Every structure is written in structure tokens, then in C-alpha cells.
Amino acid sequence: MYTPRTLAAAPRSDQSAELWRRLLPADYGWLFCAVTVDGYVWSGGGLGAEHSSGNREDIEVPIAFYGSGVPARRVERAASTVDIAPTLAALLSLTPMDSLDGRVLPEVK
Predict the structure, then answer these.
(1) Most Cβ neighbours (<10 Å): which of 18, 86, 94, 97?
(2) Cα-based angle 31, 34, 38 (whole degrees, multiple of 5)
(3) DSSP string, the chain
(4) For residues 48-58, b (16+ Cβ closer than 10 Å) or e, as one string?
(5) What is the CA radius of gyration of the chain?
């Protein structure tokens, strides 16, 4: 478990702290965050999807591109959801009006 103070003081080698530092916006008002064991489901018991942990199951998602001109292949490397917008823009030959956080996934072009 981390508080704002203990999270700020945690070493860069603490992978859970690094994850929470990336997940929590700097101006987000919070009291504490918890690190759960792998496979733990943070849920009220309903059938709806709930995301709020730093578990791999909550932060890793498959990304699929399908369409004319997109080569059929499976790529087994890390990518980020923020890579979707720049990749789609490149596929459509569009120039984004603002800077984007992600990068174009070269396997899709």
C-alpha cells in the first residue's frame, strides 16, 4: 500500500510504485493505493467490467488492426493503447492536429 508521501519516496526499482506513478495523475486527489496479488479481481461482484488495479490483467490489452492494406500477422511485443491513434492516423494518411502520446506501430503500416 502507498500513500502520496510513500509513493513519492519509493525507489525507482519498486515496480509497483513505478506502475502507480504512471497510473495516478499528479493532480489526482487520493489517500492511498493498494497493490494486489496477481489474479485478484477488484470487483463488487457484478458482471460489468471493472478496472482499477495495477495487475497485468487490468493494464494489458490486446490491440488488433483489421482492414484492407493491413498485413495479416501476429506481433508478440509490447505496445501501448496510446499507439492506436497515431497508427490509425498513419493508416488513413492523416496528420493529427495535436501531438499524440503514442507512436506509429510499424508492423501495421
Answers:
(1) 86
(2) 165
(3) -B-HHHHHHS-TT-HHHHHHHHHS-TT---S-B--PPTT-----S-SS----S-SHHHH-------STT-------S---GGGHHHHHHHHTT---SS--SS---TTT-
(4) eeeeebbbeeb
(5) 18
Give pLDDT tens digits for 10-50.
Answer: 999 998 898 888 888 878 889 988 888 877 776 777 766 66
pTM greater than the 0.70 cutoff: no
Q: Compute the distance between CA of residue 28 and CA of residue 71 in angstroms, rounded to an integer.
A: 41
Summarised one tens digit per residue, pLDDT across range 63-104 is: 899 988 888 999 888 888 889 999 999 999 999 998 888 899
